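STRUCTURE:
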């Protein structure tokens, strides 16, 4: 089977969509299927196109059964709604042209959103090639960005909502990453028989190989930024949704304690990186170290060398978001420190992978850190339980097989 995936984000970018379909593509190719990914130049989360791609009108990368077609976008940096609209709109236009004009001849088309404009492209390309369309929904826009306060409800968002409903109604199958999102998609008019829960996960075999490969470098890096004490690692996007100011508030309070053994290391990039760095400098937070972005392949080894992994979300109306990083921390065998509400908190409780505090609850997060410091045996127990949970429920190789069966049923 020839699978055409339309995704605005793909390796080497960081984040859930790139990891999700990077893992899926490898598993599908291992099963003998051909995969073409229609994407753009790497620019997430900085909004700036990576240097090797800046002068290219487009590119086609081939490796075995994988072809990656990269189309141009207007990536002008910044994170305003207008700049994001240029980024998303330009990809929709260029990817539709590239996909329609090439003789791709797929057997099925998969579009992964957000942004929702990707779903419009994948639906049109499926119609162009007269093949089934599968829509993968990780966040439900525009309501997710309205609830987050990033945009206001308007005539434009109403039009976007109507267009989304048309795409949902026409898809042969719809996949989403949490039960809450599945319920919401059905409420929006998606046929319940076509909406399937396909969770995020981690390719454990590749994760373990990356951990072994980069262990020495990870040990050296963490020793350089935090030579003493225990390291709590946050690895991910530095954007408002994560509520990372709370982390700095916790660090500031702990810095007043003499002999506190905890260091907070942030690995990643995003709109809040400058703000967080300025706070660290202005408040002289010697127990906070912002490393910046690193290749995704290095993250497994960093978690291995850390004492605990931190997963955060700020208080929000959407309670069914599940950050991919919770599975990465669990895969590493380290305990999860979770500061979030809703479905992700339910998963942490089910997995027994670490202590949970409510989103925005600074005393609760402080108390959970202290509780872990006081019980080394519990730290190890949390780590072992999390690893077992991921192996049973969130190994992306198994999830990719489930997704493949859904696609085969659509043909």
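SEQUENCE:
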């Amino acid at each position: 089977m020839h699978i055409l995936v339309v995704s605005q984000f793909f390796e080497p970018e960081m984040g859930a969509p790139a990891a999700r379909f990077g893992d899926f593509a490898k598993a599908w190719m291992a099963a003998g299927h051909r995969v073409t990914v229609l994407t753009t130049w790497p620019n997430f989360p900085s909004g700036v196109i990576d240097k090797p791609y800046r002068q290219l009108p487009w590119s086609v990368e081939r490796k075995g059964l994988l072809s990656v077609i990269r189309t141009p976008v207007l990536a002008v940096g910044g994170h305003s709604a207008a700049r994001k609209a240029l980024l998303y709109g330009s990809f929709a236009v260029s990817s539709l042209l590239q996909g329609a004009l090439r003789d791709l001849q797929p057997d099925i088309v998969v579009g992964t959103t957000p942004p929702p404009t990707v779903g419009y492209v994948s639906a049109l390309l499926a119609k162009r090639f007269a093949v089934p369309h599968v829509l993968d929904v990780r966040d439900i826009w525009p309501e997710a960005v309205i609830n987050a306060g990033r945009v206001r409800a308007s005539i434009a968002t109403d039009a976007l909502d109507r267009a989304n409903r048309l795409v949902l109604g026409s898809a042969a199958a719809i996949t989403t990453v949490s039960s809450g999102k599945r319920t919401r998609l059905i409420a929006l008019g998606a046929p319940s028989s076509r909406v399937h829960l396909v969770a995020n996960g981690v390719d454990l075999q590749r994760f373990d190989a990356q951990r072994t490969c980069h262990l020495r470098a990870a040990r050296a890096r963490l020793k350089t930024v935090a030579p003493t004490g225990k390291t709590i690692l946050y690895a991910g996007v530095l954007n408002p949704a994560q509520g990372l100011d709370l982390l700095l508030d916790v660090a500031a309070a702990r810095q007043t304690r003499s002999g506190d053994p905890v260091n907070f290391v942030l690995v990643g990039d995003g709109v809040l990186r400058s703000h967080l760095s300025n706070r660290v400098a202005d408040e002289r937070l010697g127990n906070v170290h912002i490393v910046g972005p690193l290749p995704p392949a290095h993250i497994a080894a960093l978690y291995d060398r850390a004492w605990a992994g931190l997963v955060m979300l700020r208080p929000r109306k959407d309670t069914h978001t599940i950050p991919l990083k919770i599975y990465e921390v669990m895969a590493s065998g380290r305990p999860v420190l979770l500061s979030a509400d809703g479905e992700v908190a339910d998963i942490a409780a089910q997995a027994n992978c670490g202590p949970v505090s409510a989103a925005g609850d600074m005393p609760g997060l402080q108390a959970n850190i202290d509780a872990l410091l006081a019980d080394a045996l519990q730290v190890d127990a949390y780590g072992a339980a999390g690893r077992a949970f991921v192996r049973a429920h969130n190994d992306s190789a198994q999830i990719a097989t489930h997704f493949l069966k859904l696609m085969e049923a659509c043909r």
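REMARK: The mean pLDDT is 90.
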